[in-house]
């Protein structure tokens, strides 16, 4: 149900293998508005004052994509430095990523490179959408607003460089939030249906990999015996 949350240790990531379940992660610096965007989409509300996300919040949502019901887990984590560099399990089995910066703070745009590099280290192939939040200019001092927004409009380069769709949104007034999330869900579902991440393949291979009790090369005598086995078909 929309807005339900769960504690991280209750998580069973095997469920993301099921067809009707996708995992979408959210990345970005602290206070860019990741949690507010979730609130806006899932609860259709915005509470201006709230503590920074502690370590992990999981939001559950049910969506309909092409007539099918899809269970969506949104993973939200704190962007604070003390939590930076996520644990691998945050990325594990994720099907899409929403990466957020704050149009009012350049540093959050500059840090996208670090977030993106870490994402690609763990999930080289999943769809990622880039989000420019706070376009309402709400918390800006009147004089600073224009300059910063101009700066951000010049900064499409990150999205272009990595071919990421870019959304200009506001969690405060709701601009583009529903579109952003619906598109992200669609991308996650289509990624899950159509492609297998290279890392998934590797992990699957490793899971299936049985060590031979002994390597043939360690048993030259037996190899000899087998080669000269009496039941081997004789060359005609
Ligand atoms: N004006 C304006 N303020 C916003 C918007 N979205 C978030 N904020 C404010 O930005 C601050 C941080 O928002 P959060 O959603 O807690 O940020 P976060 O990215 O989840 O931060 P961490 O959990 O620390 O990583 C809050 O004071 C919000 O009220 C927005 O669209 N416009
Ligand atoms: Mg948060």
From TrEMBL:
Residues 208-220 have a biased composition (Acidic residues). GO terms for cellular component: cilium; endomembrane system. This is Rab-like protein 2B isoform X3. Signal peptide: none annotated. GO terms for molecular function: GTP binding; GTPase activity. Keywords: GTP-binding, Lipoprotein, Nucleotide-binding, Prenylation. It comes from the Eukaryota. It is a lipid-anchor. It comes from Phyllostomus discolor (pale spear-nosed bat). Its main location: membrane. Coiled coil: none annotated. Residues 221-230 have a biased composition (Basic and acidic residues).
């Amino acid at each position: 149900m929309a807005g339900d949350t769960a504690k991280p240790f209750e998580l069973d990531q095997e469920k993301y293998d099921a067809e009707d379940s996708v995992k979408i992660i959210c990345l970005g610096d602290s206070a860019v508005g990741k949690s507010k965007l979730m609130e806006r989409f899932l609860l259709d509300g915005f509470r201006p004052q709230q503590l920074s996300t502690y370590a992990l919040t999981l939001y559950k949502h049910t969506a309909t994509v092409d007539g099918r019901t899809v269970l969506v887990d949104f993973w939200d984590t704190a962007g604070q430095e003390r939590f930076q560099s996520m644990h691998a399990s945050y990325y594990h089995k994720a099907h899409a990523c929403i990466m957020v910066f704050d149009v009012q703070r350049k540093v959050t745009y500059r840090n996208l490179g670090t977030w993106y590099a870490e994402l690609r280290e763990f999930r080289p192939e999943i769809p990622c959408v880039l989000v420019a939040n706070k376009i309402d200019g709400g918390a800006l001092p009147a004089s600073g607003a224009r300059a910063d927004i101009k700066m951000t409009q010049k900064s499409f380069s990150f999205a272009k460089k990595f071919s990421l769709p870019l959304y200009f949104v506001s969690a405060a007034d709701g601009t583009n939030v529903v579109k952003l999330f619906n598109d992200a869900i669609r991308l996650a579902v289509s990624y899950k249906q159509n492609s297998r991440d290279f890392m998934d393949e590797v992990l699957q291979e490793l899971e299936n990999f049985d060590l031979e009790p002994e390597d043939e090369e360690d048993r030259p005598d037996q190899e000899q015996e087998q080669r000269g086995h009496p039941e081997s078909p004789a060359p005609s």
